[in-house]
Amino acid sequence: MLAYIYPLLAATIWDHLRHMGGPGLILLGLVDNSVIPVTGSMDVLCIWLAARHREPWPYYAFMATLGALIGGYITYLLARKGGEEAMERRLSKRKADQVRQRFERRGFFAVALPAVLPPPFPIVPFLIVAGALQYPKKRFLGALAVGRGVRYTVEAFLGFHYGRHILRFFSKYYAPALAILIGIAVLGSIVTLVEYLKHRKREVPA
Q1: What are 3-15's pLDDT values in tens digits?
Q2: pLDDT above 50 for 63
Q3: CA–CA separation, 128 and 77 (whole Å)
Q4: CA 121, chain centre distance (Å)
């Protein structure tokens, strides 16, 4: 039953976000930068909205970046409050050590580079580690703004200039494209849940 309800619910939410325009990007940004990201959804929505030409394409780039900043900052603050214990609960030891080493070597670019890379490269582990390691707020926001700003500016620009082809593709392949998007989001959520349950199990005394 859930297999039928979830796609229907996701499609309904997607339709609402599309009709909301720029504010929909902010709402989606809050979810996409949480511990259960919806991989690729922000990119698709930003491109699709810019392709419609209802507002100037820089508007959508700005709104997508703003949504990512707000969502990312909330995740950062939660991890900052919880400290390294929160990081160890959210991430595997191997993953946490890898991200920690990147912060020690790159600092600013440890956030900016993952923020600009396209899916399925994850950004959430870097948001969590940045907060847990008490990385300075201004540097964190600056790095996230640079990375996401570059990414969504390029996407909105491409959406505007190739809008006719993009809208034709969505019109023709809307159902399978939505199914793929939902599948990726569900897979990402399942992986995150499995990792979380593994950590919880290890924390329980034998």
Answers
A1: 444 444 455 666 6
A2: yes
A3: 9
A4: 10
**Domain limits of the chain?**
23-193
pLDDT tens-digit profile of 144-201?
999 999 999 999 998 888 877 766 766 666 556 656 555 655 555 555 555 555 545 5
Encoded tokens for 115: 């923020």
Encoded tokens for 176 = 């399978």
Q: What angle do the packed helices 57-90 and 137-161 form, to 10 degrees? A: 140
Determine the average pLDDT of the residues in 96-119.
81
